[in-house]
Amino acid sequence: MLQTIADDIWGKDCLAYHVQPSLEPETRAAFEEVQRAFAELWPEHLHVGPGHGLHVTIYPLVTVKGGFDKDAYWRSIARQSQGLLEDLCAGHPTLELRFSRLKVTDTAIIATATEETGLIEAIRERIVRDIPPPPGASPIIYDLIHSTLARYRTKASIPDHVVERIESLPVCITAPVRQIRLVRETLFPCLVTDEIAAFPLR
Prior knowledge:
The structure is a single chain. The protein is an alpha+beta fold. It is about 25% helix and about 35% strand. The chain has one domain (about 1-200): Cyclic Phosphodiesterase, Chain: A. The protein has helices at about 25-40, 70-90, 120-130, 160-165, and strands spanning about 1-5, 15-20, 45-50, 60, 95-105, 110-115, 145-150, 155-160, 175, 180-185, 190-200. The strands form three sheets. The chain has a five-stranded antiparallel beta sheet with strand order 3-7-6-5-9. The chain has a four-stranded antiparallel beta sheet with strand order 4-2-10-11.
């Protein structure tokens, strides 16, 4: 049995800063088809992310949770963060995120992807190396590219066969990425964002 963790901040005000790839309308529409497929199989109510809020986070420069002074911390890293992204994206070819499977975790249902050019891995490595983390925090180390398609409204025990059925649903989404974006999030999870900067790929 999978013990799910209810999301207690869905739809609430927040402040966070993220590095994200651009997603095309066709990619969002494909994600929504996958959402409909698994929502029919899930035995509990889900928070299903609306199309406009679907995203991939390459790195959260300022996380949603955390008790530090986020404005002050962001001001201290903003210029360096933008310079780093400008450097890595300049002249880099456009890339594709290839989503091929669903994964059910205790906090969310996600679609996982691969990316062959290495740009996302390079961005993550440079941020960890060059950008000091918030006070009292350690750098976040990622080994996965994913998009969160749903979170849980309730704490529940989900039978293994339901998890297995969802994880076996076919997923084949090729998502072209033409730019890397720096965004500010003000309503969780990325239901309201504004773009601070965009770095076009060749």
